[in-house]
Design brief:
The chain has 324 residues and is α/β, with parallel strands linked by helices. Helix content is 30%, strand content 27%. The strands form four sheets. A five-stranded mixed beta sheet has the order 1-7-6-4-5, with helices on both faces. Strands 8-13-12-11 form a four-stranded mixed beta sheet, with helices on both faces. Helix 2 crosses helix 3 and helix 6 packs parallel to helix 7. It starts with a strand and ends with a strand. It binds oxa(dethia)-CoA.
Amino acid sequence: MTIRAVVKGVGHYLPERVVPNSAFEASLDTSDEWIRSRSGIERRHFAAEGQTTSDLATKAAEMALKSAGFLPDDIDAIVVATSTPDLTFPSVATMVQGKLGMTRGFAFDVQAVCAGFIFALANANALILAGQAKRVLVIGAETFSRIMDWTDRSTCVLFGDGAGALVLEAEDGAGDVTDRGVLSADLNSDGRHKDMLYVDGGVSTNGLSGKLRMQGNPLFRQAVEKLAETAHAALDKIGLVGADVDWIVPHQANLRIISATAARMDVPMDRVILTVQDHGNTSAASIPLALSVGVARGQIKQGDLLVAEAIGGGLAWGAVVLRW
Ligand code: UT7
């Protein structure tokens, strides 16, 4: 018998305000055509004034708990992936715990920028395998609209706000790739690439929350190379290849990166979950959002083999293989 962290519920939340590409044309030298053709993005959601990352995360968590049939106190731990917390501290995870009315267990944040959900999921899996928790709520939630430089056309048209959540539960498996649950993970980072994607403010630097800065083109090239590599590495650990995969659930940064990665993995685009056109890049929220939307659309079904992969600031990147 092998313990597996099996998905029991999924949920997401998108703020009501939808902003089409054309909304940027009045204030910036950009166009719907440029944004669509270079990134695949058509629209994104922005949080309302006063709406925080923990608000978005709590709504996604409530939907995931409901779909799992669990109450907040049935959960042992909450792990939130975010780079846009409500406050410097406490963690968004403890704020979600409070807002859910959960009176037990423990909660903490994971910060690996756009790869955050992959790191959070791998850590939640490790908590379950180590016997530290039986049921874990894993959330990716962001309000990247708060760290945009609205005068920088090369970044502000790309990002959006949102949240997605999974409920994992420990279950006995056979110990082979037919098991449901997390089957493998591959995590990487390389701090030498800090300047490719960072926020120019912080507590111990200048006391500001700062604005996002990105060298888009070099990052694009890193992403195409590293995402297929990490997805292959995660599959290879359990003796599988791209042809075994039912769905790639990629980080939704750029349609061109997503299709180049799928091509390198020999997976056709009709087996890739795509939400980038509707959500833009929601950083750590993009994969759980894509999972939840993929289930709601009837694409992802129980028993499907999924590979989720992401890269972001750090650089940090990784992939998780799981059977839904
Ligand atoms: O989530 C974390 C990971 N993030 C990523 O993986 C993002 C990776 N990068 C990308 O997605 C792409 O690099 C971008 C979408 C950001 C840019 O696409 P690109 O094909 O790499 O374009 P580029 O940066 O090479 O820029 C091409 C041109 C430039 O003009 P010149 O120098 O050729 O005259 C830019 O100034 O496009 C210009 N440009 C724009 N033009 C109209 C940049 N932003 C815009 C804009 N509208 N919004």
